Automatic annotation (TrEMBL):
InterPro entries: PPR_At4g14850-like_plant, PPR_rpt, TPR-like_helical_dom_sf. One of its GO terms (biological process) is RNA modification. Coiled coil: none annotated. Keywords: Repeat. PPR repeats lie at residues 120-154. NCBIfam families: PPR. GO terms for molecular function: RNA binding. It holds the Pfam family PPR. It comes from Castanea mollissima (Chinese chestnut). This is Pentatricopeptide repeat-containing protein.
Amino acid sequence: MKLPFLKTITKSTTQQLQLVNLNQQLANLTRSNRYSDSLHLFTKIHSSQHLKPDHSTLSTALTASANLRQTSFGNQLHSHAIFTGLRFYPHVANTLLSLYAKAEDLHSVKWVFEEIENPDVYSWTTLLSACTKLGNFGDAWEVFNKMPRKDVAVWNAIVTGCLENGQAEIAVSLFSEMHRVGWMLGMIITLLLAF
């Protein structure tokens, strides 16, 4: 008795395993700071007739692109994320935020953030850090005040932004507020790293 569906299942499983293996190679290259090699491998995966990049493939390629400051390649990856629907994966969306933050493109950071259905603390912190890094304190305060949860990374981002941009009085005020709400240790670490 022949089972034609079994051949289809086997082929699909083999392709999935192959993609998992390639994703691991891609991640290893990126973690090893071999960003150009990582993007080269992504291009090979993307051009394959049998494999389709998934959210893991795309977010790793976005990380490599961001670290190389290759915004034009990152823009192409962003277009791919929109076309394939992968932009809705939280990790892809957050990696897009990082790409544009590293490129100092606050407009794109805000645009990507607005597209995220349920931003997590990483999304909020990346937006906040981009605003402070670029000296846009009006937006930074707005983001900070809208945040549903503020962890030590959020407090560190706003205080560090103040310190790096000559806003020492505001940083001291925030330091007092952090102490009041119980984030003192994180603040001490931030101050030590800032000087």
